[in-house]
Write a structure and sequence with these properties.
The chain has 88 residues and is α+β, with helices and mostly antiparallel strands. Helices cover 27% and strands 16% of the residues. The protein has 2 helices and 3 strands. It has helices at residues 13-32, 53-56, and strands at 2-3, 44-48, 62-68. Strands 1-3-2 form a 3-stranded antiparallel β-sheet, covered by helices on one side. The longest helix has 20 residues, at 13-32. It starts with a strand and ends in a 20-residue tail after the last strand.
């Protein structure tokens, strides 16, 4: 979960997209067991949360983060680091 601060921050679509992408990337790398400057070309971060002004107003400014793979996976990627993905 990634929360944009400060609470009650005004909605700015570009800033929200940028902050969420950065925050969810950091969370994803930590989940994978990689350093903050690490990367994986075979996984992409994504998020679900308020992305329009009406959804933002009065909302909690929280985003659920996830990692996407172009291939089906047969196991978790938690702590996988730079090892190959457990593809099905």
């Amino acid at each position: 979960m990634y929360t944009i601060a400060p609470p009650e921050a005004p909605f700015d679509e570009a800033a929200v997209k940028s902050a969420t992408a950065k925050g969810c990337t950091t969370i994803g790398l930590k989940y994978l067991g990689l350093p903050e400057n690490g990367s994986r070309e075979d996984l992409a971060p994504g998020s679900v949360g308020p992305k329009t002004a009406p959804d933002w107003l009065g909302g909690d400014q929280a985003f659920a983060c996830y990692l996407m793979s172009p291939k089906p996976l047969k196991a978790t990627v938690r702590g996988i680091g730079s090892a190959p993905l457990p593809s099905a």
